[in-house]
Amino acid sequence: MAQIPLGNFAQARAVPEAPQNRVITVDTRGEAQAAQQAASTVQNAALGVLDNINKENQALARVKASNALIDRESQIKTIATDLDEQMRTGKLPYEKSEEAFNSAVSKLDPLETPGLDQAQQGEIGNSLKRMQLGGLDSIRASAAKGRIQSAQSDLTSRMDMLGKDAAMPGANVEQINARMDAEDIDVAGRLAFGESWASKKQEFKDGNWTTHATQRVIESRESLGSLQKVEHDLTAEDGFYAHKLDPEKRNQLLNTVSGRIFQVKEHQQRQAEMREMKAERVLTQMDRQASTGVPPTPADQQRWKSALSGTSAAGEFNTRMREMTQVQGLLRQPPAVAQQFIDQQRQQMQANGGSVAQQANLNRLQTAVDNNIKLMRENPLTFNALRTGADVAPLDVSGIATPEGQQKLGEQIADRFDVVNSVRKAYGPEVARNPWKPEEQTMLSSLIKQADDGTKLQLFGAIAASSPSGADFSAALKPLVADDPIATLAGMAQFRGLKGADGTDVPRTLLSGAKVLADKSVPLPKDKLFREAFDEHAGASLVPGTPQREQAYLAFKSLYAGTAASKGLKYDEGDDLDSKTSQSAFDMATGGVAERAGARVIKPYGMDDDAFNKSVDMQIEGMAKTSKIPVSQLEDMPLSPVPGKEGSYYLLNAGRVQIDPDTKQPIMVIVK
């Protein structure tokens, strides 16, 4: 069976037998030695712990000392950097930089290095000294740099001041440049710029010569001779700037001078041409002055002479003045006499020949006479002022809204008609009945366009009251309202004082009706209905297609619109004209229609049918006696209004005007 191994325990061991009655002595030396060894071990362990603590303390002291050195090094670098910045900005002179550095370092707190032995503290001190010396070296380097910058600044300032002197007019550049050649300047220059000092100084001198040349170009920019002298000094071998200017700058200046020479030449050419053009204008002014017949003032003569001086027309002054005297004398003659003189001169020239100057003078005389005649016919007020030296007073329309202002304006217009009619009496009916000057005509026309109806009628009334005749009024009104037919009709109605059978103010109604038609503020019948109503009223009393019929239609339409608006008549789409209002408008526009010999005829304004027929019958009876034409035959002849003469009629026989057998003149019926 299995057995448990017993190992050595299975073998029997002999046990020695202890001796009897023996004394046994114990040996303790081993124990003592062991105890001594144990004590030594404990002591050594304690000493090791103390030694480690001392080592740790020394390591910490050295680390603290190292940190302090690093901090001190940073402080010294900060001081050096700050002082360098102060020197760079000029706050600290470079020669006081070391003193400032030592002062700043001395104010630093002393380094505390506890726990270091004497040797280690000596090492720390040496390191600190090296740091301070390194900082001082940095300061010295910065001071040296500052010294160079100071030298550069001084020299730059000197060159700037001398450069400004060189830019002054009349500067002596050679003398200015010599002030940079002193020995002290060269020493400072080499300190400041080193090897580049020589080129720097030469660049300064070249700049001064360039400035001098540029200044001369500026001073000479308007003088061609001076510019050409500068061009010579820049290009010629013996020129002033030979070997003094940098080639590139010389070429730049030369380009500027050459370009400016071209500009000055062109400018002078243009100026000469402009003087010639001005001379031509002056000659035209002299001719225009001559055409007025008014002698020029001494100031004008001096101005003309000055303007012509130095031009190709300078010799024309005296000739034109003589011719002006001739023209003025000629224009003082009646136009027919002046034209006769010119025609005689032209015939003589054609027979005997003449020079170009004579032909030109004769043409100027003809132009002067033509202009004078044109001025007389179209603007008699200005013509009279030039002839007599007395002008009319300026129109004053500021008080047109008051009776006093209207009276004053009327007196002014009446005075002007007196002047115009006196010119017409002296020079004939071809002189226009125009009481306005061109600028006044423009002003009044603008006033009428912008004014309200009341102001327009007040102005028309002032003109009408001061007009000697209807023809004068019509001539005065036409240029003011030529582009407004209704205003023209209203003006003429104002002159005649027209009113409707019921007292309607015709001029005011015309203007108000025109405004209604323009702004469509009141509904009205269609244009087709207006035309049909007018044609029904007028029939053949007004010849179709004539300006008179169209003018009457415009008046009819405006008068109807104005009356309808004042009555408050209402119209719907397609409604016809109100018959009573239509008849009234037609009568106010034309004076009304009567029938004679089976044909309609326009009556004089405000005359009823009976009065019209009686007047016509009386005229016909008288004509029958003088013409030997039977009354019955004359009574059967229709009447045809004489254009422009209200109340005057031709008798028509088979559509033609009847001629008086004795006088051979048209038979005319005049109804009053």
Describe the structure in your own words.
This protein has 672 residues and is mainly α. The chain has 5 domains: 165 residues; 119 residues, no CATH class; 105 residues; 93 residues, no CATH class; 70 residues, no CATH class. The chain is 68% helix and 3% strand. The chain is built from 24 helices and 6 strands. The strands form 2 sheets. Strands 3, 4, 5 and 6 form a 4-stranded antiparallel sheet that branches. A two-stranded antiparallel ribbon has the order 1-2. Helix 2 packs antiparallel against helix 3, helix 7 runs antiparallel to helix 8 and helix 19 packs across helix 21. The longest helix is centred in the first third of the chain and has 61 residues. The N terminus is likely disordered.
Task: Please describe the structure with a list of short key phrases separated by commas or semicolons.
672 residues; mainly alpha; 4-stranded antiparallel sheet; two-stranded antiparallel ribbon; 24 helices; elongated; disordered N terminus
Assembly state of the chains shown: single chain
Into which percentage range does the β-strand content fall? under 5%
Q: Helicity level, as a percent range?
A: 55-70%
Radius of gyration over C-alpha positions, nearest whole angstrom: 63 Å
Low-confidence stretches: 1-7
The description of the largest β-sheet is: 4 strands, antiparallel
What series of H and E elements makes up the topology? Answer: HHHHHHHHHHHHHHHHHHHHHHEEHHEEEE
Class by alpha and beta content? mainly alpha
Give the integer mean of the pLDDT values: 82
Overall number of strands: 6
Number of domains: 5
Distance between the termini: 190 Å
Annotation field: number of helices: 24
Broad shape: elongated
